[in-house]
Amino acid sequence: MVPRFLKRALTGEDIVIYGDGSQTRSFCYIDDNIETCIKAITDTEAINEIINVGSDKEMTVLELAQLILKITGSSSRIIHHEPLKEGDMARRCPEISKMKKMLNRELLPLEEGLKKLIAFYQQK
Fold first, then answer.
1. pTM above threshold 0.90
2. Is CATH 3.90.25.10 what the domain over 2-119 is classified as, yes or no?
3. DSSP structural state of residue 45
4. 3 state SS of 18
5. Can you list the pairs that 77-82 forms with residues at least 24 positions away whose Cβ atoms lie under 8 Å?
6. Both ends of the chain: CA-CA distance in Å?
7. pLDDT in tens, the chain (124 residues)
8. Burial of 42 by CB count in 10 Å (0-12 exposed, 13-18 middle, 19+ buried)?
């Protein structure tokens, strides 16, 4: 969803949200995800452990779209379509205490991650 929303905002296209946008998600920057996965396969303390990878900062899909519009300065509109019939969970937010312990640092904040993605997309 993040790449799709960003690309649409950067090109001035409408951002499509299914339903009212109240469903929640948490967003983890790819570098944090990869570092956790590498540590999980190289750290003997992680053997046979279940480690959730993600972010514990929860926000609505609508809030994400609004933040992307704000950061990009886009004039794109947010358009609501009918909710998806199947598979759209109302809430997604993992418990990531083991991930945080493995990284021993804070995760990259969403806004900083979005700015990095914007810079990447603008290079192309």
1. no
2. yes
3. G
4. strand
5. 77/14, 77/15, 78/14, 78/15, 78/17, 78/21, 79/14, 79/15, 79/16, 79/17, 80/16, 80/17, 80/18, 80/19, 80/20, 80/21, 81/16, 81/17, 81/18, 81/19, 82/18, 82/19
6. 19
7. 999 999 999 999 999 999 999 999 999 999 999 999 999 999 998 899 999 999 999 999 999 999 999 999 999 999 999 988 776 778 888 899 999 999 999 999 999 999 999 999 988 7
8. exposed
Strands 58-60 and 24-26: antiparallel
DSSP state at residue 77: P
DSSP secondary structure letter of residue 28: -
Structure token digits, residue 70: 């704000």
Describe the crossing of helices 110-123 and 61-72 by its angle, rounded to 10 degrees: 50
Q: Where does residue 3 fall: left (phi above 0), alpha (psi -120 to 50 degrees), or beta otherwise?
A: alpha
